[in-house]
Amino acid sequence: AIVAVLEELASAPAAPDLRGLRVLVSAGPTLEDLDPVRYLGNRSSGRMGFAIAAAAAQAGATVTLVAGPVSLPTPPGVAQRVDVRSARQMHAAMLDAARAADIVIAAAAVADYRPAQVSTHKLKKHGGAMILELAENPDILAALAALQPKPFLVGFAAETEQLEAHARAKLERKGADMIAANRVDAGLGIETADNAISVFWHGGQHELARADKTTLARELLALIATRRAAVRAAAP
Amino acid sequence: AIVAVLEELASAPAAPDLRGLRVLVSAGPTLEDLDPVRYLGNRSSGRMGFAIAAAAAQAGATVTLVAGPVSLPTPPGVAQRVDVRSARQMHAAMLDAARAADIVIAAAAVADYRPAQVSTHKLKKHGGAMILELAENPDILAALAALQPKPFLVGFAAETEQLEAHARAKLERKGADMIAANRVDAGLGIETADNAISVFWHGGQHELARADKTTLARELLALIATRRAAVRAAAP
């Protein structure tokens, strides 16, 4: 199995060929409003997801991009862009678009929690401490994994520690085909131009060395195309 | 007194003259980290504050701009820019710079609260609800008002309701010389190009009608120059 994986990687093309495939990509943060002014946010520039959408379009795929609040132009060749703000909006947009997708790459940094109550008026300050109750957001990756037929599903994990353990746990728990994990420290990962990604799947892994996000996106798509072909070849 | 105010307004120049004055402006949101990925934020593009800094520099002032996390270029002519992220960083930068300022315009949307605990690791999700404890941030406007000698101090109030009541309460409570209040609904105020501002001071008020932020900034500075002159003329 290790030899087979190595052979697959050696044959992974530098420029992936995704012609005829429909690729759905999520990008950016989600922001969870507490009132008309305050929100709970995730740090994410959206650049990794936008680079993946751009590279997938360049590789010939029909690309749908679901974007959280970012100030980035739609990459050339992207067929459709859906802008959302909250995790629940992203959940709805992703499930809607995923039914027509062959490959789903969930690169957005989705908020796990949202304020349990949202105020339509600006909350007034009342000295001292304050307690904010949070409610859990829907699990988009798990919901995508439950689709039938299931698209080839790639999740992301941004971790400050125990990268492989957290990524492998996420792979199992969510039912994804692949987890692209990156560290969010040392000037890498979020709100930066460069990134480095460790990719995990059942029975294998591959390191994408530190590079600009355009290069990484192309390498990741080549790996996805190879892994998807291997999974389909092994299917009964 | 009303006649005097009207005369002042009638004589307010369209292009304010701030030559020889040192103006300190804050702009943008503050973001309060919960862990390396999550934060509590305020919606603010920073454009109003940046427009005020630009207009003040154009009017001949020596301008220092303290900016929260925004993706805006420093306006031409601004002498110094200090970038900060949190309310506590903004508090320190503003108090430091205010000692050398004749006029302070606090246009930043500063977070009233921050997470009571900040985690250096990414907090892991653990199903169900969650409680977030918040601690109160320092009151920058009140701290600026306590400076001796006190600069001419202009605060901002973004309100969804009871604009005048909230603005006048803030004027009294904080010890500011002027409060510029704007509604944050109906496509106005935050993350938009246009704005409309109601300006309140002890014994007077003035409406700056909906306009682009560059125009409003110039009008607001003209009003500030006029009011500052009136206050100084009335001083013992």
Task: Based on the model shown, name its key terms.
homodimer, 236 residues, alpha/beta, Rossmann fold, eight-stranded mixed β-sheet, 6 helices, 31% helix, globular
Description of the molecule:
The structure is a homodimer of 236-residue chains. The first copy, chain A, has 236 residues and is α/β, with parallel strands linked by helices. The first copy, chain A, has one domain (2-111, 133-180, 191-234): Rossmann fold (3-Layer(aba) Sandwich), CATH 3.40.50. Chain A is built from six helices and twelve strands. An eight-stranded mixed beta sheet of chain A has the order 5-4-1-6-9-10-11-12, with helices on both faces. In chain A, helix 2 crosses helix 6. Chain A is globular and about 60 Å long. The two termini of chain A are 18 Å apart. The model of chain A has no long low-confidence stretch (mean pLDDT 89). At the A-B interface, strand 3 and strand 8 of A face strand 3 and strand 8 of B.
Distance between the termini of chain A: 18 Å
Largest sheet of chain A: 8 strands, mixed
Proportion of β residues of chain A? Answer: 25-35%
Question: CATH architecture of chain A, please?
Answer: 3-Layer(aba) Sandwich
Using the alpha-carbon principal axes, give the shape of chain A. globular
According to CATH, what is the topology of chain A? Rossmann fold
- The CATH class name of chain A reads Alpha Beta
Largest interface by residue count? A-B, 40 and 40 residues
What series of H and E elements makes up the topology of chain A?
Answer: HEEEHEEHEEEHEHEEEH
The tally of helices of chain A reads: 6
Helix content of chain A: 25-40%
Number of strands of chain A: 12
Which spans of chain A of ≥5 residues are poorly predicted at pLDDT below 50?
none
Order of neighbouring strands in the sheet with most strands of chain A: 5-4-1-6-9-10-11-12
Supply the helix-strand structural class of chain A.
alpha/beta
| Chain oligomer state | homodimer
